[in-house]
UniProtKB/TrEMBL annotation:
Residues 57-85, 115-143 form the EF-hand domain. GO terms for molecular function: calcium ion binding. SUPFAM superfamilies: EF-hand (SSF47473). This is EF-hand domain-containing protein. It holds the Pfam family EF-hand_5. Keywords: Signal. It comes from Lysobacter soli. PROSITE patterns: EF_HAND_1. InterPro entries: EF-hand-dom_pair, EF_Hand_1_Ca_BS, EF_hand_dom. Residues 1-22 form the signal peptide.
């Protein structure tokens, strides 16, 4: 299941790296398109051109990121899952603030599920229950706030 690890990058609203955001417009747009296409194709398990809520699943995130198997994601586990980031990118604890409802510095299944459902709903602009590529691409680099 470690092949699903890049899912956390998208699901928790990481977005594009600072170097892409500072690139010339055409380069930034091409990088955004490439990033969105890579993520979309990776997540579209059944290759139907639409991401379902099942394909956008928190169980996968927990299974791959919860390294100590305590059913909680710490900031360190989240950072390991996200991987190297630009110096100006938010830290894992900063990314967790909006969804860590009990403020314990960790994400439990309910908190992560809420975050993923919130992001999925926000990305699903036409409210059809699935994400097409254009919806996914429109959300790349954007942060969702509760």
């Amino acid at each position: 299941m470690t092949c699903r690890l890049p899912l956390t990058v998208l699901l928790l609203g990481v977005g594009l790296s600072g170097s892409v955001l500072c690139a010339p417009l055409d380069t930034a747009n091409a990088a955004k398109d490439d990033f969105a296409r890579t993520r979309f194709e990776f997540l579209d398990a059944n290759r139907d051109g639409v991401l379902s809520k099942y394909e956008y699943d928190s169980d996968v995130v927990f299974e791959t990121a919860d390294r100590n198997r305590d059913q909680l994601l710490s900031a360190d586990e989240l950072q390991a899952a996200i991987g190297p980031q630009p110096a100006d990118a938010p830290t894992a604890p900063e990314r967790m603030i909006a969804v860590d409802l009990d403020r314990d510095g960790q994400l439990d299944d309910a908190e992560l599920r809420r975050a993923l459902e919130m992001r999925f709903s926000w990305l699903d602009r036409n409210a059809d229950g699935g994400l097409d590529f254009d919806e996914m691409k429109a959300g790349v680099g954007a942060r969702v706030r509760p």
